Automatic annotation (TrEMBL):
Keyword Transferase set for record: no
Binding site for ATP: G97, S98, N99, G100, K101, T102, T103
Residue ranges constituting the Mur ligase N-terminal catalytic domain according to the UniProt record: 17-63
Pathway named in the protein's UniProt entry: Cell wall biogenesis; peptidoglycan biosynthesis
Chemical reaction(s) catalysed: D-alanyl-D-alanine + UDP-N-acetyl-alpha-D-muramoyl-L-alanyl-gamma-D-glutamyl-meso-2,6-diaminopimelate + ATP = UDP-N-acetyl-alpha-D-muramoyl-L-alanyl-gamma-D-glutamyl-meso-2,6-diaminopimeloyl-D-alanyl-D-alanine + ADP + phosphate + H(+)
Location(s), subcellular: Cytoplasm
Gene3D superfamilies: Mur ligase, C-terminal domain, Mur-like, catalytic domain, MurE/MurF, N-terminal domain
Annotated NCBIfam families: murF
InterPro entries tied to this protein: Mur-like_cat_sf (IPR036565), Mur_ligase_C (IPR004101), Mur_ligase_C_dom_sf (IPR036615), Mur_ligase_cen (IPR013221), Mur_ligase_N (IPR000713), MurCDEF_CellWall_CoF430Synth (IPR051046), MurE/MurF_N (IPR035911), UDP-N-AcMur_synth (IPR005863)
Keyword Secreted: no
Gene Ontology molecular functions: ligase activity
Major enzyme class: ligase
Name of the protein in question: UDP-N-acetylmuramoyl-tripeptide--D-alanyl-D-alanine ligase
């Protein structure tokens, strides 16, 4: 079946789905395969649960005219999404970066949705499956699409751009994330900049942080819309303070956010600049950003019992870990304890980067530093404030939680460490 024929069938459907646990009536089910599952097995179940069509790539699972056999389900999903994107002609804003992608995407969506019908990436579904599913969420009523793109190796952003074909794009920042896959920080810059290459080649618009010299250098030949703290930009945004929450100035307005950490200033500034570009009223921009509350373990402030918790355990890399620690030290709270988990995907840089974080934390004005994970366990400890545990279970079984009474806690680590489990113990 040709993609245009499949697309005609998709337009009869209510949604696209890859999970029988979340099937909605009249959905188009894509039977993806993985290392530990074969979606073809679930095609019949998907139809029984109300799916209108099931897309499969194993002929032995053909059951009826509702079962559509293709060569490869994943490739078909990606091709259909790209076809749908061109069919709708909806303006697409794409963003990538080492840190802050999801928060920035949500802030952009919050501001633009004050004026437009928007569709944005749900959660962090930002890979070769998530990007197509985001595009397929859009319909004829969608006025702007916001697509988050994640990557941990070269050519991944290039591929995602070939699917989404964005009209606008940006990079939040370049940081020490996924060093193993990218091959060091220069590889990170090269890989993330693939979004610039697509936008420049296709004469599209790039939103550029004028305070980032790498962004400025790499977009010299581009159509750019600039923002930053200086006056010689398209949109000037001033940083006022980050204690207790980030406060910024935009035009005549003071915007009091519910975000912590100076590192969130750039994420906020990006959303303001894009909303300005799309002519959202200034007061609506202020209203949207002030109403945004972080969730999903991203810079969340949680009060539980005698503890105030800064839960930033969704993910971590050396850049974001350093920024979180520097912000944490500035807090005026009486007792401050950092609970840090291993940072993943650092390759041969892992030993050095974990030691760098230990050295930084050891010199800070913190009362206690608790390190959890095999990488932190191997580091050289030079401060009596530091305690290490080889695993979460080691911490759970051997640490006296009463030592954390009445403390403000920073909890940060890579996703695989699942440090939100500390909440359960408290």
């Amino acid at each position: 079946m040709e993609i245009n024929e499949l697309h005609a069938l998709f337009l009869e459907c209510s949604s696209a789905s890859t999970d029988t646990r979340k099937i909605t009536k009249n959905a188009m089910f894509f039977a993806l395969k993985g290392d530990n599952f074969n979606g073809n097995v679930y095609a019949k179940q998907a139809l029984q649960q109300g799916a209108k069509y099931a897309i499969i790539d194993d002929a032995s699972y053909v059951r009826s005219s509702q079962t559509i056999l293709v060569k490869d389900v994943l490739t078909t999903l990606q091709q259909l999404a790209s076809f749908h994107r061109l069919y709708l002609k909806t303006p697409i804003i794409a963003l990538t970066g080492s840190n802050g992608k999801t928060t920035t995407k949500e802030l952009i969506n919050a501001t633009l949705s004050k004026k437009y019908q928007t569709v944005a990436t749900k959660g962090n579904l930002n890979n070769h499956i998530g990007v197509p599913l985001t595009l397929l969420l859009m319909d004829k009523f969608t006025e702007i699409g916001i697509v988050e793109m994640g990557a941990n190796h070269q050519k991944e952003i290039e591929f995602l751009c070939s699917i989404a074909k964005p009209d606008y794009g940006l990079i939040t920042n370049f940081g020490k994330a996924h060093l193993e896959g990218f091959g060091g920080i220069e590889g990170v810059i090269k890989g993330k900049s693939e979004i610039y290459e697509f936008l420049i080649t296709n004469n599209k618009t790039i939103f550029v942080n004028s305070n980032d010299p790498i962004q400025v250098e790499k977009t010299k030949q581009a159509n750019i819309f600039t923002f930053g703290k200086e006056a010689n930009v398209d949109v000037q945004i001033g940083f006022i303070e980050a204690q207790p929450n980030v406060k910024v100035q935009y035009n005549h307005l003071i915007i009091n956010t519910q975000l912590i950490g100076e590192y969130n200033f750039t994420n906020i500034a990006i959303a303001i600049a894009i909303a300005n570009y799309f002519k959202v009223d200034d007061n609506f921009i202020k209203e949207a950003i002030e109403a945004y509350i972080p969730s999903n373990n991203r810079s969340q402030v949680i009060q539980t019992g005698t503890h105030k918790i800064i839960m930033d355990a969704y993910n971590a890399n050396p850049t974001s870990m350093r920024a979180a620690l520097l912000n944490f030290e500035k807090l005026n709270d009486k007792i401050k304890v950092a609970i840090l988990g291993d940072m993943f995907e650092l390759g041969h840089e892992a030993e050095k980067e974990h030691q760098n974080i230990v050295d930084l934390a050891s010199t800070q004005l913190l009362d206690k530093i608790i390190l959890i994970g095999a990488n932190f366990y191997k580091t050289k400890i030079v401060s009596p404030k530091v305690t290490t545990f080889e695993s979460f279970d080691d911490f759970k079984n051997n640490f006296n939680l009463s030592e954390l009474e009445f403390a403000t806690l920073l909890i940060k680590g890579s996703r695989g460490m699942a440090l939100e489990r500390v909440l359960e113990l408290l």
